[in-house]
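Quick start: load a record and inspect it. Here is Polyisoprenoid diphosphate/phosphate phosphohydrolase PLPP6:
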Amino acid sequence: SSLLAIDLWASKRLGVCAGEGSAWGSARPLMKVIEVSGHGITWLLGTFYGLCQSDSAATREVLLNLLFALLLDLVLVAVVKGLVKRRRPTHNKMDMFVTISVDKYSFPSGHATRAALVCRFVLHHLVLAVPLRVLVVLWALIVGVSRVMLGRHNVTDVLFGLLLGYTLYSVVEYCWLSPLNAPALFALW
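Running the structure step on this input writes:
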């Protein structure tokens, strides 16, 4: 119980953008932009759009697997949230961009899970210069930090979310969809 108390205390202290009147309340709009950058709908729509616009079989394969990863992430996070049912921090202001029923729960952070998953996916499947690779990793970490700063999650929700997303990428790689093992799926595109 002392670890839980430390988690709650640290989360409350770090929730500096939880409201407009908070210590860093003026940074709240920026934190909300970061929140949208890690939102599932943003990533699903962007991936689906890319998939529809793609003219290369290799690109379609990567994007189809990213879509699979994002859907798997949403389902897994919803199941864990539904099982654990940890309430969001009391200082959270429920003004999130598009929420569903399990979003009233806090553990794990879906944004953190998605950020870690997308980060590993992008680093593995895109050829990026070192500065861009660093920016991708920083984006994932900033998404996680923003969740606590906005008061949406406790520190452990974010840490577990980052770990879950990092691990989930390994599952996606293991179950990689290709024209050989999922020909019907690729015939649609």
